[in-house]
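From the pipeline queue, job 12 of 40. The input is one protein chain; the requested action is below.

Action: predict structure.
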Amino acid sequence: MTQAEANPLLRVTRLRTSIATDMGRMVVISDVSFEVGAGRTLCIVGESGCGKSITSLSIMRLLPKPQGRIEAGHVSFLGRDLTALSEREMRQVRGRDISIVFQEPMTALNPVFTIGSQLTEALLAHERCGTAQARARALGALREVGIPDPESRLDAYPHQLSGGQRQRVVIAMALLCRPKLLIADEPTTALDVTVQAQILELFRQLRNSHGMGLILITHDLGVVAEMADDVIVMYAGRVVEAGPVASIFNRPQHPYTIGLLGSLPKVSERQGRLPIVPGTVPNLMALPEGCGFHPRCPLAQRRCAVDLPLLNAVHGDHRAACWLAPLD
């Protein structure tokens, strides 16, 4: 085990988060644990409503207030428990040490301020530098993310840029202070495939050049295969499978993961209608007893409807929460 593996950038341990609703408090993620090392990419996979984005917001302490609450668990960043920090201390971590790229860039950019003013604001908030120096660094950041004619873009407003350019601006903003960890929440969902490929290549280059850790939240398994070192699969607020990307793709153990992988089109085969995972993600206010996936599982047994399976090792670092998965 290397020193980096023994001391990861981020260690999330048994995280439990709830949201207050009109029907009562709803647990949206439960018992979520994972690690991210420097220079490595962790992909979080699952359908909409599985808890992927809430996990990222919990890490960043950006849950809606006062409804959102971390009820249990720890988020350790370089040995420092983020759940124990005051809001003032946490503001120093956000943007400087950990940055996040949100799914829709128009919600992350203020439409009434220029790109340059929004970029320099982040630098002036976290680092001791003058306005001229901050503007020069903002210009360099736009060049780094491949924005064409960056000098003029500094004085442009968000609506004057294309969707791909706005996403690059958000990435530039997230990287201005050279964070050690970057969280990207569905960063390519609204982009066409050409721009998506460019954005993913940009992430890869920046991860390798800066040695930062990357958490990539996505439902696109093609992106996972291309980008991930490690994968966690979430369902109904829990991690149901986790491990190295090669092991997850070659030896999936949880029926949910098997179903997701089975729905991928295969270029080498002539196919008709693609298989799907039947049913929908359950209401988190009314989760079924036992395994949350059992009402949709083609392999479900009586025990699955009674007892909740734990996330156990099935092969090396590969773990699965399924009563049918073989134990290592």
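Job complete. The chain has twelve helices and twelve strands.
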